[in-house]
Amino acid sequence: MDYLSADKILIVDLAASETTEDELDEDLVSEKIGGAGMTKHLYEQHEDEDPIVIGTGLLTGTLYPATAAGVITAKSPVSGTLCHCPITLKLGVEIKYSGFDYIVLKGVSDKPIYLWVHDGVADIQDAADVWGKDVWETTDAWRKIVGDDLLQTLVIGKSGESGSDYAQVCFNHWSSGDRWGFGKAFGGKNIKGAAFRGMGLLEAAKPEEFVERSLEILKAIKPNDFMGKRGVGDICAALGHEDVTDWLAPIVHRHSACYNTPYPTNTFAYLDDDPKLVTETKVKEPGILITDIFGLIGFKNLGLSAADSCRALKACAKYGIDPTAVAELSPGKSLEDVENAFARLSGSPPIAGKGVFSPWCPTKPLFGDFGLSGGDETANWWERHQALASIFGIHPIFAVMCPQLTEENMLELANIGTDLELDKDTLDEVIDGLCG
Amino acid sequence: MNLYQHYTAINARLARGETLHFDAEKTRKLCYPRIGVYAGTGTSHSWLWFAELFERIGFHDIAFLNERAIQEGLNGSDVLAVSGGDTFAVAEALGAKGSEQIRTFVEKGGLYIGACAGAYLPMNSSKEHLNLFNFADVKITNLSKTLPKAERMAHKCYTAYGCDFIFHPVREEVRLRTTGIQPFTAHSSLLAPMYGGPSMAIPENAEVLACYDGFTEKTAFLVSHALAQETLLGKAAVVRVKRGNGCFYLFGPHFEHPRFPEANKLMADAIYWDIRDRRETQPASAQDEDTLRGPDAKKLIRDIKRELSNSRIVATGLEIMPIHWLIGAKIYEPEKIRVFLEAAWSRLIRLEKRDQINIRPGVAAHLVEYAKEITVALREIKNLTDREHDTVKSATEIFNLLNQFSTTFLEMYFGCLMLDA
Lengths: 436, 421
Description:
The structure holds 2 protein chains of 2 kinds. Chain A is an alpha+beta fold.
């Protein structure tokens, strides 16, 4: 697979501590397209060894709008079913640029390890030094070892190491869309996580046409209803929590978008420095990037202040635990209660949707008008849109706010980029395979 | 067929033993040259441009020489290419032994190609170390007793030269006019970049092949436009000085720079024109070499790739940090690190596809070791920089390591190209 691809699948045999590589076959791409379509296929191929499959969408890392996402596919240790978790921020892109489209982690390592993936080289590294450390310490340690502040990490904290059902795989320092306990799955395999950095380039089959059409689609997005809105506050408002923006405002420092995503879905709150600061902070840990809308709303609903809600999010991110589950299941209502509950949580938080795609992404349209009448139609639309986003590598939240990103233009760009002839029937088949 | 393919085709025919001539009158027989590229103490990264040029045009019989190799003799080479860098440091490193070897080499018919610092080196000088290399009676015009006012990049503008200053009026692209003397007949006007090279007074005992003729919108003026004009325009940019049976080519601008194909062509023509048919050409690099095959070859390239990737990642991060180093008389920016690393990285793809790697015995282990040391040293620089500590010592070590690694790597690489030929 020459285009829009690193052309490599990495297979990591954790028990043998060995890696092998397969080329990404064009025929397979023609059949499964990419992203979750492919990770599900690879999962089934290696099912006997209970794999975790990390992947990127066919358009991930390109100029098509919002192509920030990758996907983790594995059997949830909590529900026992196959689930997908979106990879966002700059991590999804970095995975592809680091030289692999897909990574299969199979078997169980006999000692703590992490994977260092860079420029098409995958090194299994000893994680003894970071086992027991929290998510932030681990990311900082790996960045220091590698000597690169832009290193992107996928990492578990103490929650994952101790086998909590609510353990998350976090991205760099921040919470993720993992509602499936994949952190526990990583911990069970003795994998602390993976670090990615690559300076690779993607080639498009018809580069000029690809750029031109991507820019046209981006231009068509501009008059959208989300223009002028930003950050988690406005998303919360669109979900009916209109007071979040004002509640959070005093500690908001900035809003932050994932790679090439026209809406900043993340908001950085300063807890230990002046939120109005425009120069670089001297404080080592000034605050928290709010990446989990429902976690934030959950802590607010417990009665926590904005600052304490963000402190709770920070504690969750460090511990590597799902903040939405913590907010839902925490027996107490103070920040201290929340932090003390991490190791003692029990129960099952409600999961919206069919349990295939993460309800970390709101399950209804945000801002944009998708012409839906509600009820089952909205539920089915959401599942299909999440499948679509996960196949092509589109940011899942942006996918539910931007009607201009259509199945047709995703397929069109995929074909321009790859020179393949992917069609609607194939896409329907892959989506049906994912949604059941 | 582009310029480089044209030369590659000629060289492929020469390598097969065909007899070809430079001119229709058949006065100049073409030879496939064995080229020594000086990559030792005092050189900057610009010797890599020679490597790239020679690779593109199919001159693949290359040896990368440090000062010790030159001091031991240049008998195996037809051409010695000396690139940019710190002329004083080059002269000191080569010393009397190196000077004697270069003199003998040229007098016996060898061709010396000097660009920038490599052009200053053989010019007459009274300064210590440089005075060992008084081979060409050429005077420079970019010399001043008073310090001209720097309009920008003051750290790149001057070099102290005794009580005087060698100053560099412009950087980047300049326009040149050729004089119609063979072999510079392919273009009457061309562009080439300057990074501190000399402008020369028209010498009596030398042939001027090209003069500075003008500036372009890409010319960066380090002194006033008027002073730059006065110092450069109409002055010699390329001269040929004969000595014994050989000659010195002195290039003020970098004709070997990979983005200037017309200049590249003239440099290739200079080699064809003035090389002497002194021996039966046999690939030197195929001798005394081990062949790594199959998994061993793949493992070697994989191990190198791993460390190069590690190094590139750190080096890229250093480029956004506000640091540079004064090493000897030259300022080094972090960007120069990646020039070395990319030179090897860009060639790895070709080596990755091979099942066979030719390399001198024992060198494979050294190569991987150098690469690992570079990674460790770069990470150390990053760590020290983060803590706001001085890193000049580490940077000096890095550039030495990069030179050692790059010469060894490229020797292996060109050895493989020769094998293919």
